[in-house]
Structure formats: structure tokens, C-alpha cells
Amino acid sequence: MNDTTIAAIATPAGVGAIAIIRLSGKQAISICEKVFQPKKKGIILSQQKPYTIHFGSIVEGKKAIDEVLVSLFKSPHSYTGEDTVEISCHGSIVIQQEILELLIRNGAVHAQPGEFTLRAFLNGKMDLSQAEGVADLIAANSEASRRVAMDQMRGGFSTELKLLRDKLLHFISLIELELDFSEEDVEFADRSQLKELINSMLDQTTKLMESFKFGNVIKQGVPVAIVGKPNVGKSTLLNRILNEEKAIVSEIAGTTRDSIEDTISIKGVNFRFIDTAGLRHTTDTIESIGIERAYQKIAKARIVLVMLDAKDPIEELVNQIENLAKSTTNNQQLIALLNKADMVDKEKIEQIKQTLTIQYPKIDSVEISAKHNQNIDRL
Asked: Fewer CB within 10 Å, N side or C side of the chain?
């Protein structure tokens, strides 16, 4: 690590009530001392205890720039592991820039993006997984993504990796002993123990992979594809869910020719709803491209909402489900939405649901009316 002391505005760009300017490095306290005039006489920052806050002014010569609070953190017990000072000033952009440039003129250098966290990593305050967790926590846009990022930042993922590493090293040591003494009549580990260890490592690796996939889904939003034949009500459903006219709705089949996406948060989890082009055979080149993209979205979705017209014959509805089931995997959740249920008698709705339950027991079905906003909340 070099001996430079870095400085940067730590709060988001723009005007606010309070802004924070951070210094980190061997000269952090002495640089701040040059420009800080404490309100209480006799206060010398370098002689103060760590984890203390001091009120005073940032000055340049006889000119006072702002009244501030200065927080002290001393190595190694700070975010970066270095001496760190945080200056809390008023949130004017002019004040922030004046203080930052004053610190630079007194010996600090501008921090590069992510350099405070880089120094924390290089000083052993966190590993790469935890550093990634910091970035994810800052970017978290839902309660679920915040929880995942917080767990990673606290070392949850790192702990699992360390346990797996310990098992791998133990396994390697046993194998090396067996190879080194293969001609001796000595068995350091029986085959059942080795198999048990291998299975344990495979299980743990699988769980880590699934955890990684789940984390990515949470961060990016759970992709939900709305699919079905043209003019079945997909765009109307999207508009109902989003509570805005996001997609164009018309009586003309094939109005939606490309995917329309938007995200909403439901109980702290982001869901990314995707309205796709109607699925049908067509000779229209542009519509064909839209349908091809629809299948691409289906392949990437975690949840597939299959819109069905409850007025259609049951056999046709079953065929639509069958065709879509071929384009999905066991990791995807299919839900059949019996749209326009308000235009069909209850007896037919029950027949459709019973038929789908018998032929596709893993697929849930819900009767709705996207146009009249019936049962949308059940989704």
C-alpha cells in the first residue's frame, strides 16, 4: 500500500442537508488538523482519542468555509484499516468542493472510485466477497437485495467458502497419504469416508451455486414473463400490475411486437414483469422477430404467467400449455391465468382447472379478469 492520503466526498452527488468528506491514510489526521479550527480552545486532533467527534470550522487562513463535525478513527480500527477522518459539513455543492480542494492543497490526493474499499481489502479488513457485498448493499433497491448484500458483507458467503476449502484440503491430504504409502499395508481413510467427504463437498458446492443464482435473481429482480396468444390480455394484465398504462392495448392482434419490461417491489422483493409478443404462426417478419424474442424471454424467466382465454375450448387451452411447457425447465414456475373468466360460467372454469390439475399437477391456475381487475391480487 502506498503512503498517500486519499480524500473524496462520501455522500451522493448533489445538494443535501449534510455531506461527508472522508480522508484516509497516514496523514489523514495531520492534514485535517491544518484546516480545522476547533470551537473549544486547546483541542489538538492528533492528541484526541479515536471514535470522538469534534465541533469547529474548516478555515483557509482567516476565512471560515463552514462549521463542521470531525469524526476520528485510528488505525487499525477503521473501515480502511488506516487513520481516517470524516468531515460532516453542510450539503452545499460549493462548500463540499471548497473543503475537498482545500484538503488536496494540504497534501491529500483525490481518491479513485472504490479506493476506500480497495484499501480495506488490501489491509485485511475484508475479503473480495465482502467487498462485493459492500457494492451490492449500496446499490440495493429492495429489502430482499439489502438482506442478501448485508449477509455477504458480514462474511456469510466467505464463511461457506472457507468451510469448503477446509474440506478440500482435508480430502487432498488423505489422497496424498494414500498415494505416498500405497505400497504399505496401511489405510489412512477407508473408501466410505472418502465417498462421504466427496458427497459433502458436492452438496456444499451445489448449495453455493444455488445461493449465487438466487442472489443474482434478487439483485436484478425476479424475471416474470407474461406469455400467450395474441389479444389474450397480456398487455392489460401488465398495466394492471404496474398500475399505469405501460403497454399499448388494442383490439388488433399482434399490437405488442417487442418485449416491454418494468419492475415493481412486492413485499420487499423486486419482480421484473415482461410483456411479450403474442405467440402464433405468422408471415410478418417484424412480428416473427418479436415472437422469437418472446421465447428468449421465456427461457430466462423464473416465473412464466401463461395467459389463457377462458372462452376457448378446453382442448385448445391444454395444447397451449403443452406447447409452452416444452419451452420451459423444471426450475421455472408456470402459472396458468384463465383470463376473461367473468365472461364464462363457473362450471367451465372448474372444468378447465380440473383438467389442468390432472394433466399438469405442478402448474397452478388462477381465474382472472385483467380488464375488470378481478383476482389480480391473488397473483
From this structure: N
pLDDT at 164 over 70: yes
Regarding whether 333 and 281 lie in a shared domain, the answer is yes
Distance, CA of 318 to CA of 377 (rounded, Å): 25
Task: Report whether 240 contacts 339 (CB < 8 A).
Answer: no
For 305, 317, 356, the CA distances from 359, given in Å and listed in that order, are 18, 12, 5
CA distance to 188, 280, 363, per residue, from 254 (Å): 69, 9, 26
Q: What is the pLDDT of residue 246?
A: 55
> 299 and 351 in one domain?
yes
What is the per-residue pLDDT for 257? 46
Averaged pLDDT of the chain: 85
Q: How much is the pTM?
A: 0.61
Note whether residue 234 is domain-resident. yes
Please tell me the predicted confidence (pLDDT) of residue 159: 83
Q: Could you list the residue range(s) of the whole structural domain that residue 140 is in?
A: 134-216
Residues 208 and 334 in one domain: no
Alpha-carbon distance of 31 to 83, in angstroms, equals: 11
Number of domains in the chain: 3
The residue among 265 and 257 whose pLDDT is bigger is 265
Does 27 share its domain with 96?
Answer: yes
- Asked if the structure places residue 1 within a domain, the reply is no
CATH code for the domain of 55: 3.30.1360.120
The phi and psi torsions of 279 (rounded to 5 degrees) equal -90, 120
Of the candidates 173, 200, 216, which is a domain's last residue? 216
Residues 255, 203 share a domain = no
Judge whether 370 and 236 are in contact, CB under 8 Å.
Answer: yes
- What confidence score (pLDDT) does residue 179 get? 78
Q: How far apart are CA 331 and CA 302, in angstroms?
A: 7
Pair 232, 368 in one domain: yes
Residues forming a β-bridge with 7: 23, 110
* Sequence-separated (6 or more) residues with CB below 8 Å from residue 177: 188, 189
DSSP assignments along 80-95, one per residue = SSS-EEEEEEEE-HHH
319-366 pLDDT tens trace:
888 888 887 877 788 888 889 888 888 888 899 889 888 888 888 888
